[in-house]
User: Fold this.
Amino acid sequence: MSCMHGWPVVKGDYQAGNDKSRICVVTLASHFELVPECMKKVAIIGPCHTENLGIEKIIANVVANPNIRFILICGEESRGHMSGNTLKAIHANGIDDNGRIISSEGAIPFIENIPEDAVKRFQVQVQLIDRIGETDMKIILQIIEEYHNKGDAFSEPPMIVHAVQKKRKREKLEIKGAGDVLISRDVSLDASSGIIA
Amino acid sequence: MFRFQKEQKIVNIAGVKIGGQPGELATVLAGTIFYPNHKIVEDGGQGVFDKKKAEVLINKQSSCADETGNPCMVHIFSSSEVGIKKYIDFVSEITEAPFLIDSTEACVRMEGVKYVTEVGLADRAINNSINMAITDDEIDVLRHSGVDASIVMGFNAMDSSLEGRIALLENGANVAEKGLIQIAEDCGISKILIDPSITPIGNGAGIALRMTLVAKAKWGYPVGSGIHNAPSSWNWLRNKKKEDALIYKACDMGSIGLQQMAAGDFILYGPIGNAPYVFPMAAMADIMIAEAAADFDIIPADDHPINKLV
Assistant:
């Protein structure tokens, strides 16, 4: 199956490889460079330091490519952020009504910018291969070799993740008081006097 | 330039004054040491590092501060409880500057806060930070410590808009039971430093600049940030760095001026090794801000860059 044109759809600190591959590799706090020959067997490889924005980027790129069916999680865990633990948590448990990733041990495990549909799609599209802590490239390459062409592509088309539109009402802000430069709802600058109030 | 109608608080941490109206005090600059992948760290878990190189870095920053008039602080990062104590011991012996206790792990920060209280260094320490993930244990440790200075972080992972960040500090924004400012006060923090939180470029980095103005206008607390995290999280720029490292450096240094022009009082500028580039940049911006604010009857402090370098 073809993935979205212009995949990967979300920019990040990663190397994109073969978008037909079944596997992508999340290296958590570690950085691994693969030689071009190996890159032909992975869809994408890169670190994930954070338990919120980092996880969102992974999900957005994965659901946009139905060819990806496996995520290898390896490398050193991101201390404090616990992004590896959080990736497993969101895959297993999803998010609650506030966007909190259920059962994550990360410090601030929230999803803000992608819809719950994308999380649900992520849960069913891919299987996780949990090798958190693994830094031995020989073993990592063996896993890539085993999974890069395993099984079929996901049966549904690429999912385009649109940033969640806030329900906040986009009201027209008006300057209050004597100011003439708007800074926020209740803060303005009077340009002639230079006073911010 | 501008002046805030709200009275601007100035906090004094171990002789370093932070805050005030734009043009009043020099921007306080904190370089980070012992950060992840810092080459002087040999074993972060055990707090083993090259002491000679660390001393050179700290002293270089102090020299830059003396030369320009921009006060300095040392931003200590540790990934381990063992490490944070060794780092604090070392830094506090080399310099009299205030230092920040920072880690991605709460247990490390708590160990640091407990340690400075035990050894009598609490009045030089700044907890980094009180944020939306603060635990009851952290609150308890801070409350029973001698630390009275902390950064209060405006990062709201559920709503990263300006309103979301302000609400987190003001009322907890349905994330915390109380606003983080109230939590800080409950912990005995009398020297509150607001950090509007630099999210990556493309994810609202610029909002932090506007929040700096709003936070000062609203509460009058000193505000500042680790704005270098904006260029460092920008993938396009990281790729340009491979072409020419100076491109990255220019953006990195330039970001400091942005935070200063948005009324920032302090800046965590990233690797302490950048001090020779950071301090002149910050001093230049401070001088121009002071000149622009002169009509407001803002009198720069005696050791402000405008009085040392012009």
User: Anything to note?
Assistant: Strands of chain A lie at 15-16, 23-26, 44-46, 70-73, 127-130, 181-184, 187-190, 195-196. Chain A has a mean pLDDT of 91. The helical segments of chain A are 36-39, 53-63, 83-93, 116-125, 137-147.
